[in-house]
Amino acid sequence: MSTLAWMTARPIAHRGLHDMNSCVWENTSTAFDRAIASGYNIECDLQITSDNMPVVFHDYKTDRLCNVEGVVKEMTAAELKKLTIGSSGEHPQTLKDMLRQVDDRTGLVIELKPQSDCLTTVFATAVLEDLNEYIGRVALMSFDANLILELIRLGSPWPVGLTAEAHSDYGLHLDEDILDSGVRFVSFHVADLPHTFVDHAKARGLPVITWTVRTEQQLELTYRHADQITFEGFDPDMQHSREQRASG
Length: 248
Hints:
By secondary structure, the chain is an alpha/beta fold. The protein is 33% helix and 19% strand. GO terms for molecular function: phosphoric diester hydrolase activity.
């Protein structure tokens, strides 16, 4: 059983080390390279296309990120890869593209975005197939209890985790039975801390990371109640360096 020590050892760059989509856009190869260069783990998102290809893309639709109307699950991977993400000049990647790029230069915390029930098995199976020959540090997670349970049922060799908040729209509602299903870690909404669900997860020995940390106060809240941050909008190492200089 693989260890998750890497996940809590270093902060996790939310959708890569982007600059809030000013010049470096979320979930792009540049954002991932910047995270690797800074020694941060990477959090990224997966959707599935009409030809059953996992793609690195957060939204269900393409308008916000690509300024083109479209629904990811209704497009082929080839169609999606022709689009440009914002002003970056970059194109959406497949999961396989991203794995080739990262090549175990850092750890990956990969979120599978909830899908319709008819896509649960297809999505989980496709992700595990793409990861089949990858040698590196990977953890998979989702808000969707059905996706979590399907990954576990399929015998995922990668640790599977729960993404959660105090008020979820995905039917989980912090049912602690999920912690007995084989879940290996929890990613929890930082604004909902402190919370008894997190306390119970930690009491079971499960690592807890938080999302999405954007302020010093949220960083401090995480380290009081959880194990590691998923962050964006600032550089934790630079923040720590400033604090050290101030205290010195």
